[in-house]
Specification:
Elements (H helix, E strand, L loop, with lengths): L2 H25 L6 H7 L4 H12 L3 H19 L4 H7 L5 H12 L3 H8 L3
Length: 120
């Protein structure tokens, strides 16, 4: 592969990943499938997973969960919505899945997080 071809390839990867990030930030509340995301990146699922991890140093699923948890953190502090409402609004299929992912990232349950940040 020539230098120019390599540069073009890398620009395409960057452009495709930018589309994926944009789509994720607009659609994280919905159920997302890797096949759907890979098609946005114009790649196979395995190729997308490889390039996304190389580009971001994390898997797409880790990135998606980070986006969802960040949104949940905001909603826990800024609203009075229930934890269940927030879980579903952030794209989780179940409250237990939300608790697991939130606790993994924050080292606290969503309710503990809300209480800790209530008076700050």
């Amino acid at each position: 592969m020539s230098l120019q071809t390599t540069e073009t390839f890398m620009q395409d990867i960057d452009s495709n990943m930018a589309r994926v990030i944009d789509f994720t930030l607009r659609s994280f509340q919905e159920p997302l499938r890797l096949s759907q995301i890979a098609s946005i990146a114009v790649m196979s699922v395995s190729s997308f997973c490889y390039h996304f991890k190389k580009w971001t140093n994390r898997t797409y699923i880790d990135y998606l969960n980070e986006v969802r948890v960040n949104n949940a953190r905001y909603l826990l502090i800024e609203t009075t919505k229930s934890v269940s409402e927030i879980a579903y609004e952030c794209g989780y299929n179940s409250k237990s899945q939300f608790h697991r992912q939130f606790s993994k990232k924050e080292k606290k349950t969503p309710l503990q997080y809300r209480i800790a940040h209530q008076y700050q």
